[in-house]
Predict the structure.
Amino acid sequence: MPTTIIGVDVHDVRFPTAAAGDGSDALNRGDYSATYVQLRTDSEVTGSGLTFTNGRGNEITCAAVRALAGHVEGRTVEDLFAEPVAFSRALTADVQLRWLGPEKGVIAMAAGALINAAWDLRARLAGKPMWRLLAELPASELVASVDFGHITDALTPGEALELLEKAAPGYDERLALLERDGFPAYTTSVGWLGYPDEKVRTLTRAAVADGWTAVKMKVGGPIEDDVRRAGIIREEIGPGRLLMMDANQVWDVDEAIANMGRLAPANPYWIEEPTHADDVLGHAKIARAVRELTDGRCRVATGEVAANRVIFKQLFQTGAIGTCQVDACRVAGVNEVLATLLMAAKFGVPVCPHAGGVGLCEYVQHLSIFDFLRLGTTLEHRMIEYVDHLHEHFTDPVLVRGGRYRLPTKPGYSVELRPESVATYSFPDGSAWS
Amino acid sequence: MPTTIIGVDVHDVRFPTAAAGDGSDALNRGDYSATYVQLRTDSEVTGSGLTFTNGRGNEITCAAVRALAGHVEGRTVEDLFAEPVAFSRALTADVQLRWLGPEKGVIAMAAGALINAAWDLRARLAGKPMWRLLAELPASELVASVDFGHITDALTPGEALELLEKAAPGYDERLALLERDGFPAYTTSVGWLGYPDEKVRTLTRAAVADGWTAVKMKVGGPIEDDVRRAGIIREEIGPGRLLMMDANQVWDVDEAIANMGRLAPANPYWIEEPTHADDVLGHAKIARAVRELTDGRCRVATGEVAANRVIFKQLFQTGAIGTCQVDACRVAGVNEVLATLLMAAKFGVPVCPHAGGVGLCEYVQHLSIFDFLRLGTTLEHRMIEYVDHLHEHFTDPVLVRGGRYRLPTKPGYSVELRPESVATYSFPDGSAWS
């Protein structure tokens, strides 16, 4: 019996995090929020998706979801996934709404929430966690889910199929490994720009005690402060653990290169978003310079606001990125993430998805697990970002122990919010706001 | 006496153009619409700005304008323009709203409408048409209006100042020339994809009779159809007039190169948006191929949905574009257009701004006139797009005669809508919709 989507509910959910300085970086400071989408069906199963925003403006992405909702309302899940590219293009290339992107920003984020909700629904109906649903799909169906429009000069469907087939051996061993050890993670909770030095030191020490072997700090403030904080963290983690740095796009290209010269003594593993996210050539120039500055030890990471597969394509083509940080709901959902994972595999770039925010850890664990099982085949250079915020609001929160994500076991994509959290934090009428 | 902005009115104005096939291209088909902004002040002068959208979804850009409106409400015009980059960054780098772009799509378009409205207000208070206000500003003030963030690797403030100073001689002669002859234009009204062959032929013949020396057609349908329509238009315009082609992003990179091989016999002057707007490297590859295919006669044009100065920077750095088609309200308004015009001048790329839609002709005439007077200094390869739609709704519509724009003479940026048009076409309550 097909399952029909009979309605799309959109909730403007905002958590008042700004006051604590959590999540503060060189460019963003806000209330972690979610444009939260639920697909009601004619069965008792509901599909949930969300896109992460920063507080004010969440009403804009909510409006965009409503504008796109007509493409799923009244459709059956079976129909949508019988022609997955037709489905994703209905949202990404709507003849009137595409103009508002195209394929970027608000409109792509809204498409992402809806497309992810549809995949969540499919996984729940199948009784599988999202990673397992994806990992058990035939290669041909995975390839058929990808919109190759505008990326065939970098990856063809035939090449995608080959990549999947080549990675097939060892699946059972990889799955057994993950079930035993979990997936490696790193923490971003130690070094937000809003934290004073002593808090950074205390949190870093605690992270080491908790078993973390990789930590990330924010940079992009006055360079003297960045250098001092990097020194504190390196002192606490010792020479063996990884230190990642995240500039959140504040630097100009040549400024990034100069500042990395100052920060290189702290032995960073990567510099994340060293300049404007749209600057493919700038990232490529910085990547070359940073490799030279560090004898190849430091790489450029980016992707959390990379708008779509076309930007990722160019980042890969130019060798601009050494770590691909695709976001689960910045691009147009699972289908566009698949395009990006396939290109990353072809270009040999490891994927460490962007997380934190609201629900991003819940989302991306599924993507990293799938990627390891079906494409990446190694854990080398693979880690899932972890931030210890707001997990308590989810019905199936991530489980991270000793610096590793445990495999999700419940059906779905793990971003269903608790009904009481939706009620309390709905803006502007929830009790947290009124 | 300073003028204070006491309120921001946002109107969702939509014209039901979809039915006629006007404006139909390979990717867009909608109702030409405007997110229309009016800045009320404590004087009788009002500032008007708009961003162009395609019908459904106009409520999303309206919501975005409302979210950003706090950055201008309660401010004086004098304050805003005393620190123009602080003003533009308040909108483009709002710590919560930037995440929704960043600097692209809905949020950039909303910033553009508001920033343009502030410039319109300033021009009206000065009693000057926008082109004259800009053209009479000292070079130092023009440079101080540009956000050089993330473009200093391509253009520094010092270089910008030099460009303006180098272009200063001959201003009076250039102005006299424009006052006498007007500014060259081309028409896009002959070859929309929705038009049958005979309508294309009739419109082209009429355009030639009206004095047009350059016409643009849409391509990106079945290539046989494109080739046939190109033949019809070339037949009608003869060998001496220019034929431009616009693919509206539908082709993949290698497909664009193959198709231009088929279309080259019609001797196109440019191919516009041959592939995805974000694909800087793809445009560069196509530009090289097309130059080779046509012995250098055909160039790549793009920019109508180029998101911001960082994308333009890369298009210039890679030699990807031969014609810069910046849009007046896709990027964050006048300030970001100035950044783009300055980079175009440095890289020697002529600017032919994107127009059509609603109010875009009204807007961009001011930009082209300014560019010629202060930066470009020649009319060679410069034309303003013209589409004969919806001008009757503006209080100061463009005046185009014999294929040339006449200089606007009324104060402001020319995008004030007639109050009766706003009332009639307001969505969903205006009489055109209800």
User: Anything to note?
Assistant: Chain A has 16 helices and twelve strands.
